[in-house]
Amino acid sequence: MRAEVRAFVIEQLSDMNYDVDGIDDDATLGPAGVDLESLALADLAVRVEDQYGLTFAEEESEQLALMTVGEFTTMVANRVARTRNDRS
User: Fold this and answer.
1) What's the pLDDT at 14?
2) What CATH number has the domain bearing residue 31?
3) Residue 83's pLDDT is what?
4) What are the residues whose beta carbons fall under 8 Å from the beta carbon of 36, sequence distance 6 or more?
5) Dihedral angle of Cα 75, 9, 37, 41, to the nearest 10 degrees
6) How many CB atoms lie within 10 A of CB 60?
7) Does the reported pTM lie above 0.70?
8) pLDDT in tens, 28-63
9) How many domains does the chain have?
């Protein structure tokens, strides 16, 4: 699941016109990494929410900017797994 989420995130970043060449799991989503500004980060979060049926709390937006790509994809994959387990 994590690999699927990571591929989706990278695809969305590319779709949002970010240079995804060389982005690894250690790149932060915010400054000094992918360099997503708050609107772009919100856009990415909405795309992930729509794709995987998740919801991010408003308070999480600042935390997301500090996360690495790896941390973000792991968090999303874990939430998706919990959601699917809850439905079973």
Assistant:
1) 97
2) 1.10.1200.10
3) 84
4) 18, 29, 30, 44, 65
5) -50
6) 13
7) yes
8) 999 889 999 989 999 999 999 999 999 999 888 889
9) 1
pLDDT at position 88? 66
Task: Give the 3-state DSSP-derived string for 27-54, with helices as H, strands as E and coil as C.
Answer: CECCCCCCCCCHHHHHHHHHHHHHHHCC
60/56 Cα distance (integer angstroms):
6
Q: What is residue 67's DSSP assignment?
A: S
Q: Report the alpha-carbon distance of residue 74 to residue 2 in Å, rounded.
A: 6
Tell me the C-alpha distance between 69 and 66, whole Å: 10
3-class DSSP state of 88 = coil
**Ramachandran angles phi, psi of 73, nearest 5°:** -65, -35
Q: Count the neighbouring beta carbons within 10 Å of the beta carbon of residue 32.
A: 7
What pLDDT score does 49 carry? 96
